[in-house]
Structure formats: structure tokens, C-alpha cells
């Protein structure tokens, strides 16, 4: 969002930001009006993603060059905003095959389309017109991508006299665009646009308050909002509290961690959503957090043990049990790489102790084995090694369990099995795949 004469200018990111957080729109507005300063925001993960985004765009352009024999025109980076927009329009009128990072503008809207591709559909420009394609790393198209593309399509439409019939997204998985019919999304696009314009009308709202949302993770205003939450002792500071619990509590005038911590239990109200027990749990958490303030070692309480509670839900131990962990990096190559497979287990002495006393079973030494992978071939080998390890152990100890930290491991195992078409007929994987996700044991 930028100040433009007496008014404002908006971009595709303003639409995406507005969709993610209404308070963000208000902060951006105040920054555009010069009332507050934009905080410095640097995120190594975002920078890595940006770098990968550039590489993906380059790969797509190379693909166009190889398959269609077309050369892309990239605008000089030293052009000022107005000249860059004029240059895009000029290139469109001249019929350039592909225009990359094309600045577009109309009325109070600005955009920078990743790729404009010429197609043989007549328009005001001549016997050709343009379609808009976005190169995206995410495997699934997000709502904000569609909004962005609708904006670019609208801006292109103003130049060529008609709206491109479709908008496309190219992911690294395939260099073939996934197409969306522009008209199917226009009503949605106009609605978000109208909501944004309404939100900034007459200087916006001074009453807006930050409510934690998914977007906070990548938001430049996060330090500012965190400061507000800390000052206000906001309920979102309670570990594990959900958005709907916060809403219910605020509806009952409980707005602060201390307020929640001092709530009498058993609760005197019946929540509209969720069980009383779940509210008592967050209340206990809030109480512990308040008690911990100023302490070097945070206060803690042991939960009561009982059947079907906590660790008591675990199955009886087997000497063959395996503790499995897998580490991956999403930013490697086109689809990421699982670079470390690790297992911890009881060594032979403990393993063969099924028929021996529990004393000798306990004495089996804990062992660790791991396989590193720096290439796809090594990743496949690491995966096959892990499956082979489980199989060999399962033959000797059919009641073993595999313990893992999160749902990530079963998903990764399934993904690798599919990606390399390997180990599909191994019962330890294919039979048990159906029961993956039942807690963290499979
Ligand atoms: S940090 Fe979160 S609540 Fe604050 S403006 Fe950003 S997205 Fe909104």
C-alpha cells in the first residue's frame, strides 16, 4: 500500500495481506499515511524461499525456450515505476512472446506479473493477446495466488481490451501450468477488493486489534503485535489455547492470562463449544504460566496417571520396539530431501531377552543407527535400509512398535514409498500404512 496523491495505491500483496489479517491492513495503512514506521523484518526462511522462487521462474523460462522456442524479455531493473509500466505496455503492443516480471498498473492498482505469455487470440493489440502465469513453489494453489492472478488478469485486460480467459500456476512438480477460469474467481476477487477498500476508507479504523493468525509467522508487523500481546497479557500467550477457546473466554469477559489463571474450577459455565475439561486444562496451563513468572525454573505439575491417559495409552513394550526419526529439508531440489533416517533400539542382548527375565531385557544396550542422504539415490537407499531394518527385526519380534515424534514420519514414509515405487509390498509398510496416524505409534 502506498500513498498516491491524495489517495492510496494498492498491490496484490495488499489483497493477500487483507485476506490473512484485517489488522495488518490497518497497520499498512498507518504506515502508508506516515503515522508509524514499518519495522525491519528479516527472515532467513523467507529469503531462502524467495531464492528458490527465482530459480523456479528461471527453470520455467528455460522450459519455454526449449519446448516452444520462445525467448523471454526481462525488463531492465533500473527503470522507475512509471517507465517500467509503460515498457510492459509497449512490449505487449510489439507482440513480445514472453514478458517476465512485468509491472502493470491501472487506476489505483499496481501489480508485477511473473510471466505474460502471448497467445493467438485477437485483442486490441492485434492478432494476439496475453495470458498471465505465476510461478509458485507451493504444491497447492492458495486463495491469495488466485487473487493475485485475478488482479494481474484485470490489469492486462485493461491494456488488451479483454480479460484473459484463464490464469495459470506453474509449480516445480510440472512445468505445465494448472489453469483456472478467470470468470470463476472474479466475484471472489471483487469481494476481497471491495472489503480492502472499505477497510481503509476515511483513514481506516483505530479500534482494530491484532488477533493471532497463521499469517503472523511471515508478517513484518509480528514484533509490534507481540509487544501488544505481552503488554495486554493476551490470552494467546497461554500455551495450547485454541482460537475458539479464546473467543469463548472473551465472550465471557476473560481477556487476560491472569484472568484465566484465576478462574474457579470446576468451571461455573458450560462452554458453547468444546468440553469443560478442555477449558479447565487451559486454565491450569495459564495458572502454571502465571506462577512461573519471574522464576528461573518454570513451575510444573505432574499429571495424574491413569488408564487411557498420557503415556499409559502406550501399548505394552516389546523388546523389538524401534524409535524412529527422520529429518528432511523442503528446500532441496524440486521436492525436498529426507536427509537422515535414524533408529534407536535395544541391542541384541536386550532383543533376545523376550524369553528371559525383565532384568536381562533392561540390560540390553540402547543402540543407534542412521543413514545420511545427500542425493536422491542415497535418500532411496536410506529409505530401503530403514524398511529392511524394520522387516528383519519384525521377523524376529512380530509385536514390535515403531515410535516416532509426529505425523511427519508416517507421511514421509508413504511419500518415499510412492516417489521411488519401492517397498510397496513390504507388509511392515503397506499393511501398517492404514493404521498410521493412530497416535504416534505405528
Ligand atoms: S503479526 Fe499477525 S496479527 Fe499482527 S498484523 Fe501481522 S498477521 Fe496481523
**Count of separate structural domains:** 3
Which range does the strand content fall in? 15-25%
* Ligand names: iron/sulfur cluster
Give the beta-strand count: 12
How many helical stretches? Answer: 15
Described by strand count, sense and barrel closure, the largest sheet is:
8 strands, mixed
Q: What letter string, H or E per element, gives the SSE order?
A: EEHHHEHEEEHEEHHHHHEEHHEHEHH
Q: Mind telling me the C-alpha Rg?
A: 28 Å
CATH class of the largest domain: Alpha Beta
Taking pLDDT < 50 over at least 5 consecutive residues as the criterion, the unreliable ranges are: 430-440
**Helicity range of the residues?**
40-55%
The third-level CATH topology of the largest domain is Lambda Exonuclease, Chain A
Report the structural category: alpha/beta
CATH-level-2 architecture of the largest domain: Alpha-Beta Complex
**Overall morphology:** flat
Mean pLDDT: 89
- First CA to last CA: what distance? 50 Å
Describe the structure.
This protein is of the alpha/beta class. It has 3 domains: 2-203, Lambda Exonuclease, Chain A (Alpha-Beta Complex); 233-301; 316-435, no CATH class. It has 15 helices and 12 strands. The protein has helices at residues 12-20, 22-32, 44-68, 81-94, 143-160, 182-200, 222-232, 243-251, 257-261, 276-292, 348-351, 358-363, 376-396, 408-420, 427-430, and strands at 2-4, 7-11, 72-74, 98-106, 109-119, 129-135, 166-171, 174-181, 322-329, 337-346, 366-372, 402-403. Strands 1, 2, 3, 4, 5, 6, 7 and 8 form an 8-stranded mixed sheet that branches. A 4-stranded mixed sheet has the order 11-10-9-12. Strand 7 (166-171) and strand 8 form a beta hairpin. The longest helix is centred in the first third of the chain and has 25 residues, at 44-68. Residues 430-440 have low confidence and may be disordered. Bound molecules: iron/sulfur cluster (SF4). The site of iron/sulfur cluster (SF4) has 13 residues, from helix 2 and helix 7.
Amino acid at each position: 500500500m502506498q500513498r498516491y496523491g491524495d489517495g492510496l495505491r494498492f498491490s496484490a500483496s495488499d489483497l493477500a495481506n487483507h485476506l490473512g489479517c484485517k489488522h495488518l491492513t490497518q497497520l499498512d495503512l498507518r504506515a502508508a499515511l506516515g503515522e508509524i514506521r514499518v519495522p525491519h523484518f528479516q527472515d532467513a526462511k523467507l529469503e531462502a524461499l524467495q531464492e528458490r522462487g527465482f530459480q523456479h521462474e528461471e527453470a520455467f523460462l528455460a522450459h519455454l525456450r526449449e519446448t516452444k522456442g520462445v525467448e523471454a524479455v526481462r525488463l531492465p531493473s533500473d527503470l522507475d515505476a512509471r517507465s517500467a509500466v509503460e515498457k510492459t505496455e509497449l512490449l505487449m503492443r510489439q507482440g513480445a512472446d514472453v514478458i517476465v516480471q512485468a509491472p502493470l498498473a491501472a487506476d489505483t492498482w499496481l501489480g508485477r506479473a511473473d510471466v505474460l505469455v502471448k497467445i493467438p487470440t485477437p485483442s486490441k493489440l492485434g492478432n494476439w493477446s496475453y495470458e498471465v502465469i505465476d510461478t509458485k513453489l507451493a504444491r497447492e494453489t492458495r486463495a491469495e495466488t488466485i487473487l493475485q492472478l485475478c488482479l494481474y488478469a484485470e490489469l492486462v485486460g485493461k491494456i488488451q481490451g479483454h480479460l484473459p480467459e484463464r490464469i495459470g500456476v506453474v509449480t516445480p512438480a510440472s512445468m505445465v501450468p494448472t489453469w483456472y477460469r478467470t470468470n470463476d474467481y472474479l466475484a471472489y476477487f471483487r469481494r476481497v477488493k471491495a472489503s480492502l477498500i472499505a477497510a481503509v476508507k476515511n483513514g481506516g479504523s483505530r479500534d482494530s486489534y491484532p488477533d493471532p493468525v497463521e499469517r503472523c509467522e511471515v508478517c513484518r508487523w509480528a514484533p509490534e503485535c507481540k509487544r501488544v500481546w505481552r503488554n495486554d497479557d493476551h490470552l494467546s500467550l497461554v500455551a495450547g489455547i485454541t482460537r475458539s477457546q479464546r473467543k469463548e473466554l472473551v465472550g465471557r469477559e476473560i481477556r487476560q492470562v491472569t484472568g484465566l489463571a484465576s478462574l474457579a474450577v470446576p468451571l461455573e459455565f458450560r462452554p458453547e463449544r468444546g468440553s469443560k475439561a478442555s477449558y479447565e486444562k487451559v486454565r491450569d496451563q495459564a495458572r502454571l504460566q502465571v506462577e512461573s513468572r519471574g522464576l528461573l525454573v518454570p513451575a510444573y505439575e505432574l499429571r495424574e496417571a491413569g488408564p487411557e491417559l498420557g503415556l499409559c495409552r502406550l501399548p505394552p513394550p516389546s523388546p523389538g520396539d524401534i524409535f524412529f526419526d527422520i529429518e528432511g529439508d523442503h528446500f532441496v531440489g524440486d521436492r525436498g530431501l529426507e536427509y537422515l533416517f535414524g533408529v534407536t533400539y535395544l541391542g541384541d542382548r536386550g532383543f533376545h531377552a523376550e524369553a528371559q527375565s525383565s532384568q536381562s531385557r533392561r540390560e540390553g544396550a540402547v543402540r543407534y543407527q542412521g543413514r545420511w542422504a545427500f542425493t536422491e539415490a542415497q535418500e532411496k537407499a536410506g529409505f530401503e535400509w530403514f524398511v529392511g531394518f524394520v522387516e528383519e527385526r519384525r521377523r524376529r519380534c512380530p509385536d514390535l512398535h515403531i515410535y516416532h515424534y509426529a505425523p511427519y514420519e508416517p507421511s514421509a514414509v508413504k511419500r518415499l514409498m510412492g516417489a521411488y515405487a519401492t517397498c510397496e509390498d513390504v507388509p511392515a509398510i503397506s499393511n501398517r500404512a492404514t493404521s498410521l496416524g493412530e497416535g504416534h505409534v505405528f
